Amino acid sequence: MKKFELVTNDEFLISVVGIGGCGCNAVNMLHEMGVNRHASLIAINTDNAALNHCTLENKLLIGENLTHGYGAGADPSVGLEAAKESRNVILEHLQKCDFVILVTGLGGGTGTGASPYIAELANEMGKPCICVATLPFESEGKMRMDYAIQGLEALRTKDNSLITLPNENLVAALGESVGLFSAFKHSNEMLQSIIGSLVALLTETGLINVDFNDFCNVMNHKGNAILGVGRSSSEEGALEALNQAVGNPLARCGDLKNSKGIILQINCREEISMATYNNLTIHIRDSSDANALILCGVALVPNMTEAIEVLVIATGLNETVNNLSPTKVECLGDDPILDIPTFLRNQKKAV
């Protein structure tokens, strides 16, 4: 595995790249809610009509000569060839950033075919990369699921972190009677929430500077993962927000007790009490393995809508709750892990 080093200055820039219909929807939602100045949003698609519905500025139509802007026709091979055709312009966009988060939905043509190739380009450029991919509902059919698994295996061959979010997990949480459009909307909202929190984690807590290696150490654990976000309108609901994050139906894939590495990030609109902080960290420690590496961060974000937000990333789990498509996190490197808990506090004004 390649070892990446980050540029540690105030001009650090994360490119959040949405690929295909699902990915473009996710970055468009991020744009509408507003993101950190360190994040640049890019929508990439073979479907020009879908791109025109995106309100963000950076929109890239790939494979124009191949598809004429009409999409990949649910064929991953077309999505791949479209990305290859537009290699130079994709490289140009990626060149501007220091870190890449790819957001995609697997099972269709553009996301499934183009995402592994774009991840490979990021890797060739030496850009640290996290891929967040949703998997289709079983109701979407075997062919779509087969395509998704093929895309997942292609992404796993790249030197980056891969987090998969099975949409089917929503069925157990929302019930089989939930409307299909409502389920997709819920999936997109959760994806947007997770990506937004990842951006904040990397840019507002100092992890992009001296503590980024700690973040990578947690992400380096192979196995299943829990990745979730919870929110509360009051500080008194902080523990409920933590339970929401850990019980995220889209991203949960195992028992926290089996995790080898955990990031607990607490974002608050106003200063929280030591009692609240202690309750959250004690709850995480009591719920996890005694030997797990636990990193705890706190950031003051005055412009937050809710009073408190809790992000939990737990890696290295062995159990799965979805036999077809378990959540995986592939390692960024093979460095040894020191069991040194880190408390990060960053009270910069919101940008």
How would you describe this structure to a colleague?
It contains twelve helices and eleven strands. The chain is globular. It has two domains: 14-204, Rossmann fold, CATH 3.40.50.1440; 225-346, Tubulin/FtsZ, C-terminal domain (60s Ribosomal Protein L30, Chain: A). With 351 residues, the protein is an alpha/beta fold. The two termini are 35 Å apart. The model is unreliable at 1-9, 206-210 and 319-351 (pLDDT under 50). 38% of the residues lie in helices and 22% in strands. The longest helix has 25 residues, at 180-204. The strands form two sheets. The protein has a six-stranded parallel beta sheet with strand order 3-2-1-4-5-6, sandwiched between helices. A five-stranded mixed beta sheet has the order 7-10-8-9-11, sandwiched between helices.
What key attributes describe this structure?
single chain, 351 residues, alpha/beta, Rossmann fold, 60s Ribosomal Protein L30, Chain: A, 6-stranded parallel sheet, 5-stranded mixed sheet, disordered N terminus, disordered C terminus
Give a brief rundown of this model.
The chain has helices spanning about 20-35, 50, 65, 75-85, 85-95, 110-125, 140-155, 170-175, 180-205, 210-220, 240-245, 275-285, and strands spanning about 15-20, 40-45, 60, 100-105, 130-135, 160-165, 225-230, 260-270, 295-300, 310-315, 340-345. With about 350 residues, the chain is of the alpha/beta class. The chain has two domains: about 15-205, 3-Layer(aba) Sandwich (Rossmann fold); about 225-345, 60s Ribosomal Protein L30, Chain: A (2-Layer Sandwich), CATH 3.30.1330.
